[in-house]
Amino acid sequence: MSLPVDAPAGEALSALSRFRVDFYDCLYRRADALFELTDAILCADGPVKTLVELCLAVEHRRGHGALYAALDRGWLEPTRLRTGTWIERAS
Q1: What CA–CA distance (Å, rounded) separates 29 from 63?
Q2: Angle in degrees, 0-180, between the axes of helices 31-43 and 64-73, rounded to the nearest 10
């Protein structure tokens, strides 16, 4: 599933873009808020200890209410995530 170290930058960017689109497609309810929450976690400077820290991240543009609602009522399809089309394309 990984790209070779010497892969061209355009190929790596394309694989990342496909992954992000496929990941977003796995999110059903509260997709935008869950996607921003994922970005905030991945872009954090270190371990995240509280949800409040994620609300303050630049990548999470929504208020803290949206974060809690996404965690409470959001939904993703784990089977689809495991079998995403990005897996076949990246190998």
Answers
A1: 17
A2: 110
Please give the DSSP secondary-structure letter assigned to residue 57.
Answer: S
Closest C-alpha among 3, 37, 33 to residue 17: 3
Residue written as tokens 């991240």? 57
CA dihedral 11→28→70→47, nearest 10 degrees, is -30
pTM: 0.72
Which positions ≥6 away from 85 have C-beta within 8 Å?
18, 22
Length of the chain: 91
pLDDT tens for the 91 residues of the chain, in order? 455 666 677 777 788 888 888 889 889 888 988 998 888 888 888 888 888 888 777 777 777 788 888 889 988 888 877 776 555 544 4
Instruction: At 44, list the tokens.
Output: 């954090």
Beta-bridge partners for 76: 27
